[in-house]
Amino acid sequence: MYTFGGVMLVTSEEKKHCIPTRLTSEQMKKIDRLVKRLGLRSRSEFIREAIDHYLNEAGSMKVIEIRGISMDQAKREIIEYLEQKSEADTFEIANDLRLDLDLTTKALKELWEGGKIR
Predict the structure, then answer these.
(1) For 79-115, b where at least 16 C-beta lie within 10 A, e where not — what string?
(2) What is the pTM for the complete model shown?
(3) Whether residues 107 and 76 fall in one domain
(4) What DSSP designation does 2 have?
(5) For the chain, how many structural domains are there in total?
(6) Dihedral (C-alpha) 77, 79, 85, 86: value to the nearest 10 degrees?
(7) Phi first, then psi: what are they for 31, rounded to 5°?
(8) Is 87 inside any structural domain?
(9) Do residues 26 and 46 both lie within one domain?
(10) Residue 5's Cα: distance from chain center in Å?
């Protein structure tokens, strides 16, 4: 953007927006250290790159819609799941079956205590 004779001229570059943000002193110190270490031109460049990084990471996250099912249904599905797989951890079971992690943990505990799984 340039000013010429009191008129603002905008280049063909994409329009940029400004978002006022408050940061703590500790955050600013960390940003300043990283700007220097990474050889960036400014805090703004660091913040833009951090936002791009986060947007890419968040955009590739897998979102799992948790199903609300009963304990008995969860136990049946977990048994079927484990019959298909030789082993799996609690998080994998919960994610693959789209179950609440707490429900999965309780169901696994009950199945183990009842001798249904090893």
Answers:
(1) eeebeeeeebeeeebbbebebeeebbeebbebbeeee
(2) 0.52
(3) yes
(4) E
(5) 2
(6) 160
(7) -60, -45
(8) yes
(9) yes
(10) 48
DSSP 24: -
| Range of the structural domain that residue 54 is part of | 22-61
Residue 37 lies in a domain: yes
Residue 97 lies in a domain: yes
Task: For residue 7, give the H/E element and its range.
Answer: strand 7-9
Residue 69 tokens, joined: 């099912």
Q: What is the pLDDT along the chain (118 residues), one digit of tens a residue?
A: 555 556 655 555 677 888 999 999 999 999 999 999 999 999 999 999 999 999 998 888 877 888 999 999 999 999 999 999 878 999 999 999 999 999 999 999 999 999 888 8
Structure tokens at 21: 């943000």
Check: CB of residue 98 under 8 Å from CB of residue 62. Answer: no
Please report whether residue 34 resides in a domain: yes
Report the alpha-carbon distance of residue 93 to residue 81 in Å, rounded.
Answer: 8
Residue whose structure tokens are 């609440």? 100
